[in-house]
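for the recovery benchmark. tokens below, seq after
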């Protein structure tokens, strides 16, 4: 399972706004193109483990500062979908 986690975490740290929009659409999560771009820019290069609750929560708090609390909740839903096994 560690390989799976590494792949997902790597994807999060290299995601583009367009990819984030695609995943949001796939999981019926509401996010604007501008928000997706800002979030992707923030995530780029970040070493974070979204499988660890504390790290994911800290990341979501930072996303809330960038894109607002409602969008952060939506992104958290997306991350939870990514971590379901």
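predicted aa per position
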């Amino acid at each position: 399972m560690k390989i799976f986690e590494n792949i997902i975490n790597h994807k999060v740290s290299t995601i583009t706004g367009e990819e984030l929009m695609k995943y949001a659409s796939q999981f019926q999560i509401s996010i604007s193109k501008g928000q997706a771009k800002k979030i992707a820019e923030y995530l780029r290069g970040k070493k974070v483990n979204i499988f660890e609750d504390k790290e994911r929560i800290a990341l979501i708090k930072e996303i809330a500062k960038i894109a607002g609390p409602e969008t952060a909740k939506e992104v958290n839903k997306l991350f939870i979908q990514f971590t379901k096994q």
